[in-house]
TrEMBL record:
<keyword id="KW-0479">Metal-binding</keyword>
<keyword id="KW-0949">S-adenosyl-L-methionine</keyword>
<dbReference type="GO" id="GO:0046872">
    <property type="term" value="F:metal ion binding"/>
</dbReference>
<dbReference type="GO" id="GO:0035598">
    <property type="term" value="F:tRNA (N(6)-L-threonylcarbamoyladenosine(37)-C(2))-methylthiotransferase activity"/>
</dbReference>
<protein>
    <submittedName>
        <fullName>2-methylthioadenine synthase</fullName>
    </submittedName>
</protein>
<dbReference type="InterPro" id="IPR038135">
    <property type="entry name" value="Methylthiotransferase_N_sf"/>
</dbReference>
<dbReference type="GO" id="GO:0051539">
    <property type="term" value="F:4 iron, 4 sulfur cluster binding"/>
</dbReference>
<feature type="domain" description="Radical SAM core">
    <location>
        <begin position="109"/>
        <end position="345"/>
    </location>
</feature>
<keyword id="KW-0411">Iron-sulfur</keyword>
<dbReference type="Pfam" id="PF04055">
    <property type="entry name" value="Radical_SAM"/>
</dbReference>
<keyword id="KW-0808">Transferase</keyword>
<dbReference type="InterPro" id="IPR006638">
    <property type="entry name" value="Elp3/MiaA/NifB-like_rSAM"/>
</dbReference>
<feature type="region of interest" description="Disordered">
    <location>
        <begin position="91"/>
        <end position="110"/>
    </location>
</feature>
<keyword id="KW-0408">Iron</keyword>
<dbReference type="InterPro" id="IPR013848">
    <property type="entry name" value="Methylthiotransferase_N"/>
</dbReference>
<dbReference type="InterPro" id="IPR007197">
    <property type="entry name" value="rSAM"/>
</dbReference>
<dbReference type="InterPro" id="IPR023404">
    <property type="entry name" value="rSAM_horseshoe"/>
</dbReference>
Amino acid sequence: MSVTLLTFGCRLNAHESDAMEHLARQGQTQDGDTIIVNTCTVTAEAERQARQTIRRAHRENPTARIIVTGCASERAAEAWAALPGVSRVIPNTEKTRPSTWGLPEKAGRTPPPSRYIRALLQVQQGCDNDCTFCVIPAGRGQSTSMSPKEIIPKARALTEAGHCEIVLTGVDIASWQQEDMGLGQLCRHLLNEVPEIARLRLSSIDPMILTPDTGDKALWDLIADEPRFMPHLHLSLQAGSDLILKRMKRRHSTTDVAGLIAQVRRLRPDTGFGADVIAGFPTETDALFQETHDFLEEQAIPFLHVFPYSERPGTPAARMPAMPKAIRQERAARLRALGQTMRDHFLHRFIGQEKTVLMESPTTGHTPEFAAFTLQQAQPSHRGRLERIRITGLKDGMLMAEIP
């Protein structure tokens, strides 16, 4: 059986598709082609693209079995099952079981290698938050945490496979809790138990885990004194207006976020901050949008992930007074332009410095702060190597560098 994976959405979906592809390679026993579509429901556009892809796949290979899984199909299984060529819809909780898509359970006994130089390690699933714009809990269920007994062997296997940098990922990793341990304690435990991990990084986190007064103390300690913990934090911010945050039913305030950014910068001044931001949320007046714009500018967050608001049927936000789509797009463009300015200002500070970086190709990669760079020399490095480079300039949002 030939198995093709088509993936939409987040890093977690990509990570799960990696595992599914590994399982498929180990257990190809049936005749015919199988196409597995791993869907995303974060935006309407992601769902539209997945439906379009399924229709195209059926037209191009009408005899193939099409299996649909992921968060979008979790919410509307019957609608996805009715698409042409779809033979089965699989729940998220079962998609990494080979038997659900026609392979023997013995497939996939060895841990899957990551296709990426920077290895993803899933530690958590689902979400208990109740944000008014989000349907992820419907697609992923309630928050569950993998135990350290599961996580440590997987991390060790990744380092043995040659990965020197590991990224902890999940739907809401800030909610990770097991055996009286929080996320910061898990990170410390992981670094102690697997000393071969040269670099540990977090995927997107809820800002509440790092509020200066009530946040995860163990995580603050890592930021302060652990060189293997990368100086890069991507915040699930969503807005820079307290009223919009309240209507989103987010748990943090702009004061919380400003406080944590200031404290992190006191401890590690060059930390690279990223943030998810929604533009054009329902009821967002010009004045409220300006609050978000000004807050982002004041905090000088260099790596913005901006997207216009997308209605998700059945959510409270979908019943709120909507902004015209043209306004959402225009506001998103303004925030992206602001982000480029702040990014370039942030990157300028590194010119003349030397950094130990992870090579993701012979000539490109990211610094510990997650700033992209490219080597400007005839003799390249090697993919997967930790290399010492000197930053020489900045061009089109990317650092120019050389090996000293």
